[in-house]
Amino acid sequence: MNQITIHQEAPMQEMGIILKDGSLFYVDDEFMQILAHTHKGKDIQQALNEMASWCYANPSKRKTSRGIKRFINSWLSRQRAPIVDSTRNRTLQEDYNDTSWAI
Predict the structure, then answer these.
(1) DSSP state, 81?
(2) Residues 55, 94, 71: CA angle, nearest 5 degrees
(3) Is the dihedral of CA 83, 50, 15, 36 positive or negative?
(4) I want to staple 5 with a disulfide (CB 3.0 to 4.6 A). Which of 11, 23, 31, 93 is the partner?
(5) What is residue 90's predicted lDDT score, i.e. its pLDDT?
(6) What is the pLDDT of residues 43-60, one digit of tens each?
(7) Neighbour tally for 56: CB within 10 Å
(8) pTM to 2 decimal places
């Protein structure tokens, strides 16, 4: 039976990111604030869940406790923030999915 070590408590993050040694990493409040400030307009919680899923599915590419913060920052840097139509306060994807005009 595998025993999992938790590196930090899970204040806001729903899922821990599994590391190379099998332990879980949770983003602490301080790092979450830095991420939110740096990556405005991005859904950081959703991105963290995607990272956790990716690390779970790719065991040979999991990160170490030393490199996980760099991985998180790099992932978020490559992610695009949704473009919002300021006149209607909707993202372009929501506008694309709108079929209210169809009969």
Answers:
(1) P
(2) 20
(3) negative
(4) 23
(5) 62
(6) 999 999 999 999 999 999
(7) 13
(8) 0.68
